[in-house]
Design goal:
about 280 residues; Endonuclease III, domain 1; 5 strands; DNA-binding; lyase
Length: about 280
Amino acid sequence: MKDNFEVNIDDTINSGQVFLWKKFDSKWYGINGKEILILEDKLDIKSKNIHNFFRFDDDFQKIKKQLSKDDIMKKAIKNFPGMRILRQDPFQCYISFIVSSNSNIPNIQTRLQKLSRKFGEKRTIDDKELFLFPKPEKLANASITDITKCGLGYRSKYVKKAAIAVSEGTIDFSSLKKQDYQEARDSLCQVFGIGKKVADCILLFSLDKLEAVPLDRWVLRILQKYYSKEFQISTKTITEKTYDELHDKIVEHFGKYAGYGQQFLFKNERESFDKKWLG
DNA sequence: ACCTGACCTCGTCT
DNA sequence: AAGACGAGGTCAG
């Protein structure tokens, strides 16, 4: 029996992994692909969807214990002990992070909301109008002009091409899940608009690759601030090469659940700067 | 191989 | 109130 009470829903949703969530009164309403999830203060872990989404199949205590290699990480875990990594719908996750590049959370959220409203199916639940995430075919057939209307800017062509790759079967998420981390990442990086960072987000948040560690501006800043000796960080900008070198060092230090670790550090640091989450 | 600049858009700050 | 700034990167040269 897993510790349902230990999950902190607010911290989990507001940790930059999901964007299509909104709180009405005390309930969270969220879109996960073609599902709508509604969360109250207690999670119904008997629900297959909830069990899967919150990764109750992970041994969370063991993961936290394995990650606790140093004081910085211990403190981050202690501050947000109920934050989990979610297992998202892969296509939604894939598009979400393609759209995230060179942007911020409020902007990402707006873009995804507009995309869903324009291209997703409408559902009415509890008097609320919600839109499912668009299907791959729908985005693949959309015009660049219409996608651009959702505020994606130069990312519009990334989204269209990426959606085509999925609808044509060039990208197949169930195969990627079966591949190992490196192999799956290489496949994702073939897609126009996906670099290593975005690939790592997709792998960690939807394809069960817990050793994926997205190295973004924040994580870099965190590593420079607290781990500069540990990981011998010299450069300020991430290049193709330094990305992989750093990643290897991180996995070596934190182990195979390093992705969870990244999430704790990210959440902890951003909270200390009082950055905005979902609005 | 590496490095640098450009890039759409929008919320936020001044 | 208008204008500048920068944000969970990626691509092209």
